[in-house]
């Protein structure tokens, strides 16, 4: 089963790419994010939707923020970036979790380049964890829906979904 990747890092262009979910299912348009504000905008403007993808976008946003400016007070700038991202959607639990997790992997005892590498690895790891979680949820849901359908002689199963 081929799964659509909603977010990914493009090494050729050095940007994070997301599918503009406002246009689905009629169009598949890729939006490139190359800095903190573009990642924040993707969250605020609902280019990315769904708790897992919002969180992953925030993790990549932290990475992009680290790449933007490597001057003095790296940790202070990352704390500012964290607050900036969290303000994009203050009630989004996955967003706050992802930002806080990103902050937890960096240290003022490390060189900026090492922190940047850790932030990228963290974003990639979170993306894979969310893909794995979503796949498992889908598999479990498929089995439940199939069992319901089988018990009703193959009649269509009505499903109500909710973001929570």
Structural class: mainly alpha
The parts where pLDDT drops under 50 for at least 5 residues are none
The total beta strand count reads: 3
What is the CA–CA distance across the termini?
26 Å
> What is the molecular shape?
elongated
Cross-sheet strand order for the largest sheet: 1-2-3
Specify the helix fraction band: 55-70%
Write the element-wise H/E pattern from the N-terminal end onward.
EEEHHHHH
**In this structure, how is the largest beta sheet organized?**
3 strands, antiparallel
How many helices does DSSP assign? 5
Can you describe what's shown?
The protein is mostly helical. The protein has helices spanning 36-44, 51-68, 74-86, 93-105, 112-151, and strands at residues 7-10, 15-19, 30-33. A hairpin with a 4-residue loop joins strand 1 (7-10) and strand 2. Helix 2 (51-68) runs antiparallel to helix 3 (74-86), helix 2 packs antiparallel against helix 5 and helix 3 packs antiparallel against helix 4 (93-105). The longest helix is centred in the last third of the chain and has 40 residues, at 112-151.
Give the SSE layout.
Layout: E1 7-10, E2 15-19, E3 30-33, H1 36-44, H2 51-68, H3 74-86, H4 93-105, H5 112-151
Antiparallel strand pairs: 1-2, 2-3
Helix pairs in contact: 1-2, 2-3, 2-4, 2-5, 3-4, 4-5
């Amino acid at each position: 089963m081929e799964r659509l990747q909603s977010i990914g890092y493009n090494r050729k262009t050095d940007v994070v790419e997301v599918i503009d979910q406002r246009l689905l299912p009629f169009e598949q348009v890729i939006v490139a994010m190359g800095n903190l504000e573009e990642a924040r905008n993707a969250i605020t403007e609902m280019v990315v939707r769904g708790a897992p993808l919002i969180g992953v976008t925030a993790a990549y946003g932290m990475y992009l923020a680290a790449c933007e400016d490597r001057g003095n007070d790296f940790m202070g700038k990352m704390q500012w970036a964290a607050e900036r991202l969290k303000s994009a959607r203050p009630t989004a639990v996955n967003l706050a979790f992802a930002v806080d997790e990103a902050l937890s992997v960096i240290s003022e005892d490390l060189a900026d380049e090492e922190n940047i590498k850790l932030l990228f690895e963290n974003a990639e790891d979170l993306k894979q964890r969310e893909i794995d979680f979503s796949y498992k949820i889908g598999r479990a849901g498929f089995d439940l829906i199939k069992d319901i359908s089988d018990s009703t002689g193959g009649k269509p199963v009505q499903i109500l979904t909710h973001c929570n």
